[in-house]
């Protein structure tokens, strides 16, 4: 509920400047994240013929392991500016859309200022590449609740959940879980 209240406040502030912030991807459950993971696994290992370890690295750059997605918490979502979209445009959620002369860059520039002036509890957990997940300027997180959930997520909890799943590359993921957790899941 607090996430929605904060989003509505931000949305109203943006509307005053001609920006219509909309959510393109919000809550995503474990099963949906596993479907994304398994489909990418098939693509990277069959089409691109990557080794299991390389496939994991490629998948995790933009799609995390089920159970670790911040989208599971109801605190995180991907956004776009509906007022900037041409008819029939397909959102890509790509760096080209959100920086420079990108279609949604003005919204993100506005959002930079909105976040920097402490007018919101939203932040970008993947604002910069820390050697793990690629930057996702479009991904916002509601700090007061997300930080609580992040502190509760542990290797043991994740490992137990994954062991009861049909995750492709499960053995490789579990073998490297400590490294994956530190490199791709922990957000400062």
Concise structural overview:
The protein is of the alpha+beta class and 188 residues long.
Describe the protein's architecture and organization.
The chain is an alpha+beta fold. Helix content is 49%, strand content 9%. It has helices at 2-15, 30-47, 52-62, 95-98, 105-116, 143-152, 155-163, 170-175, 177-185; strands at residues 21-25, 76-81, 122-123, 139-142. Strands 1-2-4-3 form a four-stranded antiparallel beta sheet. The radius of gyration is 17 Å and the shape is globular. The relative contact order is 0.18. The mean pLDDT is 93.
What topology does this entry show?
Blueprint (H helix, E strand, L loop, with lengths): L1 H14 L5 E5 L4 H18 L4 H11 L13 E6 L13 H4 L6 H12 L5 E2 L15 E4 H10 L2 H9 L6 H6 L1 H9 L3
Antiparallel strand pairs: 1-2, 2-4, 3-4
Helix pairs in contact: 2-3
Shape: globular
What is the alpha-carbon Rg in Å?
Answer: 17 Å
Number of helices: 9
Please bin the fraction of helical residues: 40-55%
Instruction: Describe the main β-sheet briefly.
Output: 4 strands, antiparallel
Strand-residue fraction?
Answer: 5-15%
Task: Give the strand line-up of the largest sheet.
Answer: 1-2-4-3
Structural class estimated from helices and strands: alpha+beta
Encode the helix/strand succession as letters: HEHHEHHEEHHHH
> Which residue ranges are poorly predicted, with pLDDT under 50 across at least 5 consecutive positions?
none
Euclidean distance between termini CA atoms: 24 Å
What's the pLDDT, averaged over the residues?
A: 93
């Amino acid at each position: 509920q607090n996430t929605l209240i904060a989003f509505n406040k931000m949305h109203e502030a943006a509307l005053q400047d001609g920006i219509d912030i909309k959510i393109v991807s919000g809550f995503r459950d474990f099963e949906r994240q596993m479907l994304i993971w398994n489909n990418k696994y098939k693509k990277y290992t069959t089409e691109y013929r990557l080794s299991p370890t390389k496939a994991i690295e490629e998948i995790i750059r933009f799609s995390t392991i089920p159970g670790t997605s911040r989208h599971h918490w109801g605190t995180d979502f991907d956004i776009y500016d509906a007022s900037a979209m041409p008819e029939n445009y397909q959102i890509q959620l790509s760096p080209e859309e959100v920086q420079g002369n990108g279609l949604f860059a003005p919204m993100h520039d506005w959002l930079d200022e909105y976040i920097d002036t402490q007018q919101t509890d939203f932040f970008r957990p993947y604002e910069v590449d820390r050697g793990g997940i690629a930057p996702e300027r479009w991904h916002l997180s509601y700090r007061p609740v997300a930080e609580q959930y992040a502190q509760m997520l542990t290797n043991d909890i994740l490992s137990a959940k994954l062991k009861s799943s049909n995750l492709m590359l499960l053995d490789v993921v579990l073998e490297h879980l400590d490294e994956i957790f530190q490199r791709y899941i922990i957000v400062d």
